Queue: 2 jobs
Job 1
Amino acid sequence: MGGKYMTGGARMYALFIVLNKAECLNEILINMKDIGITGATIVDSVGAGRLRKSIGKEIPLIGSFMKALDTGIANNKTLFTVVENREKLESIMERVEKICGGDMSKPDTGIMFAVPIEVSKGGSVSRVKDNGPKTYRAE
């Protein structure tokens, strides 16, 4: 399997954002759209540490998770998306940090990280460019 990139050579990134401040999600999505990132997947999530503190260490992990769904444990929002270049990646990460209070290292804020996409199969990433829509397809 060769190391082909989705864009035929330009590096793309998978950006993951885990928000402890779910109230920031809508503003983040608006900012993503403003810079041309229009697609993302968002899932409810809960950190294992928060789950253990809320429910107790003696309950098995699966049981804890199921119980968490029935209780008022504060959930995170986890967002992931594909960003087609380093410039946009840095821009959205700066905006997310600002929206979340200016310092992602503060407790109960969240975490974000990006990993380069080396190989992809299936699907496509559509983005609207100044000169019209452009679709990046996996090779």
Job 2
Amino acid sequence: MSRKILLKSDKSLKINKRKNFEIKFYEGLLEYHPNFIDVLIPLGDVYTRKGFYKEGLAVDEKLTQLLPNDPIVYYNLACSLSLTSQLEQALIKLKKAVLLGYDEFSFMSQDSDLENVRKLSEYKIFFSKLKRLRNKKHE
């Protein structure tokens, strides 16, 4: 094995240790403060980045209970539902995010977390309506 490959694997080990540290750190804080929003948000993000989609989904569901009118929380929930192949529910939560004020439509159309949902014909219809509404708003 070449030195370059060894260095690369050492680097990925350090990254994995850091991510594991992040998860353990946030989970430890939640043991004392289970509804600490400023901990739940980054923990959900770390779970998702690490590929722990079911854990990220549980965090996002909890955040919707704690922040029921936050469009970004519902957007993130839609992403988690999409990543766990719950596509119909993902679309429902995505629509709710928009109704609550989420308006980053160009990001939505490219977000890899929503790739599964974008395949739904219902999503295509919904997104085309959003584009028409946005165009009328800017006229």
